Amino acid sequence: MASIKNLKKDINYVLGDIIDEAILKAGDPKKTEAFIDETITLFDELITKINAKDVENKKAHFKSINAELESKAIALLDKVSKL
Known about the structure:
Elements: H1 4-24, H2 29-50, H3 58-82
């Protein structure tokens, strides 16, 4: 991982693309709105974890955030395909 700045950009781009995909496949507006809210909540959670100051092993902490982003992004993409 190059930097915290790049990790924040990755989170923003990945979740932004997922929201775009959900909007394009919007069938039921209420389901789409709930999905977007869930995605924004995930964004907020990940950014809060990045900004945590009381971390002992920063390298492992940021790797775990990156892994969490990957796994949750895959799960969100599965949900998009079911919208």
